[in-house]
């Protein structure tokens, strides 16, 4: 079967950036930055990207583009039959797990866009936002309906194929996402009292930085850049031989980091405008679906036109960000079943979608009817989240860096990185050094931290 490529370099970068820019940029990065020393945290985060993120992203790009195969096939080819082939297979399943809970949150963003557009937050007292959210996620069927819609959209894009599905949608959605982000940031920054919010986000405070800050920054960098499970490896398998790997990786990282910082520009000026304490807003779902809808109403005028527009655009932005990331995760699995089990793309995608419908519904229902079902003290949703995020991702990142630094043929790496000698690679030695020593060690520490080994530091 003819294998598709992305049609343009810009399309390739936008698709990869679409994978990277996701919920992590909005619901974790800004609040982590604010609480961990502002610009000091951003500097550490950028160093993590330079030292660890980029080397691993470039390696994933390289393995994907060199083999032009799905992640499992790619690692089978480059591992020459050694057990390293399992790194690829593990990545597929990691992505599958992430997808199953990620779509649940993606569905919530749709519901909140709907609530915002219909002005449902009009005159809601501040303390009721928690109940609105709890009642919604515990509802016996409403979240599942949105879930099916969200997965349906992903499925549609995936079945259209690499160029007219993934690439075309990225070319439409990423500029949209960028424009909305700028618009919301400008609106928020022009609110009275905005400067305090920017100060919270940006003022460097090195006294808040300790070893756990560095570990948090590393973990966040990995998640935000979609690394460590072959997501970008799969996308890179659709790059053509002329795509500059290092430059594309730098571009993706810049886009991802800019959007994450701008998300802070959207959130904190409004928070400080109404005199709320950002340390009491929580992170993740609590921040996004409980604190922020209230913040937006109060800052922009309860039920006002501006509040409706701002809130609707904000949740639509989250929806687009979540959608492009979910598409990339789905593609990893689809490429895998299609190529490894010799199916048509249609069949492969349908198979993946069916499993995600089932497991995603279970994750979704674990906030309601299935909340009693727990394992290791965790709901189904947390189980998927923790298992993939705390165990499989750090493990994958460590193995990929060790493989790329120690096992993969050095000449092959250099030839592929330089597009067979067309590009200069003055950073090559540093790259290999990081892959061999810095990355495995650093990710090893993140791994131990995720498992709770450094609990005594906190
Ligand atoms: N990067 C996305 C975010 O910031 C999530 C994501 C997509 C992801 N693909 C991934 C995370 C692969 C880890 C691995 O929300």
Provide structural commentary.
The protein has 458 residues and is an all-alpha fold. The chain is built from 19 helices and no strands. α4 crosses α17, α8 packs across α15 and α15 crosses α16. The protein is globular, with a radius of gyration of 21 Å. The protein starts with 8 loop residues before the first helix and ends in an 8-residue tail after the last helix. The structure holds tryptophan (TRP). Tryptophan (TRP) binds next to α1, α2, α6, α11 and α15.
What's the average pLDDT?
96
End-to-end gap: 53 Å
Structural class: mainly alpha
The major β-sheet equals: none
Q: Cα-atom Rg, whole angstroms?
A: 21 Å
Helical content band? over 70%
- Percent range for β-strand residues: under 5%
Shape verdict: globular
Bound molecules: tryptophan
The ordered H/E elements are HHHHHHHHHHHHHHHHHHH
Uncertain spans, ≥5 residues at pLDDT below 50? none
State the helix count. 19
- Number of strand segments: 0
Provide a short characterization of the protein structure.
This protein is 74% helix and 0% strand. It is mostly helical and 458 residues long.
Topology:
Elements: H1 9-20, H2 23-27, H3 29-35, H4 39-67, H5 71-78, H6 85-117, H7 129-138, H8 142-159, H9 162-189, H10 194-202, H11 211-224, H12 231-236, H13 245-273, H14 284-300, H15 305-340, H16 345-365, H17 380-407, H18 410-417, H19 428-450
Helix pairs in contact: 1-9, 1-13, 1-15, 3-13, 4-5, 4-11, 4-13, 4-17, 4-19, 5-6, 6-8, 6-15, 6-16, 6-17, 7-14, 8-9, 8-15, 8-16, 9-13, 9-15, 10-13, 11-19, 13-14, 14-15, 15-16, 17-19
The chain binds tryptophan.
Tryptophan is lined by residues 19-20, 22-25, 95, 98, 223-224, 226, 229, 231, 325, 328-329, 393.
